[in-house]
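Case study: DNA-binding response regulator.
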Amino acid sequence: MFRPDSLPTVRVALTSAVWAAGVEAVLAAAGLPLAADEEDADVLIVDDAWLPDLPALAGQALVALGSREWAAVLPGVLTGGWAALTPDATSAELVAGVLGAAAGLVTLLPAALTAEPEADPVPAGEVTLTPREHDVLALLAEGLSNKRAARDLGVSESTVKFHVQALYSKLGVQSRAGAVARGIALGLVSV
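Here is what the predicted structure looks like once written out:
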């Protein structure tokens, strides 16, 4: 069980290897250790494919990334900590969900109860990034903040923010984690 004086171990059990790699990159950037299997993990991160197996997860601290259905079913099944997040949750929301679930808390973002995200993923052949956008995406994949990325690139923080927003638009995402995952899927960046 997670102790507040240490970081929880996390097992990412998403069906998409690309999505899992993006989530693992975000967790690693936050300093959260990854577990080799569910038994060694303080928190398990799952997607909609796990919905049929929900009763088997009853004793596990859980972060569910996916449909709004999780928010409806988790309260009736889990007694410990859990988080229901949308697939485009920000890095900060994902880390907060993991830490909250490990501490026995419930994290439910309002977006999990409302309409699906507005942006649609852009088809792979239609994504063209500028050299600077490639640089910014690579730094996002490393988990760097806008301030640190600006320092590394020798530009202002507002310039990095501009490029991050351009990446979100071009990749059809709404978060840093989404940009990294989509970038990996398109072969634009590797982690």
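For the exam, be able to explain this: The chain has seven helices and five strands.
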